[in-house]
Design a protein that fits this description.
mainly alpha
Length: about 55
């Protein structure tokens, strides 16, 4: 029915918006940030920076 077409577009818009948000959240929280930060701190602490001015 043509009268119901806007309702279908709205439902599809919400569906793909929620799908997009879920995809982004899953990619963001897929790995642990704490472990990477600890590894980076160790690397930075081990390197001595000698400034030559």
């Amino acid at each position: 029915m043509p009268q119901m077409a806007p309702m279908n577009w709205l439902i599809l818009y919400f569906f793909f918006t929620i799908l997009f948000l879920m995809f982004n959240f899953m990619n963001y929280y897929m790995f642990l940030i704490k472990n990477i930060m600890i590894k980076n701190k160790k690397i930075i602490e081990n390197k001595k920076m000698i400034w030559k001015w």
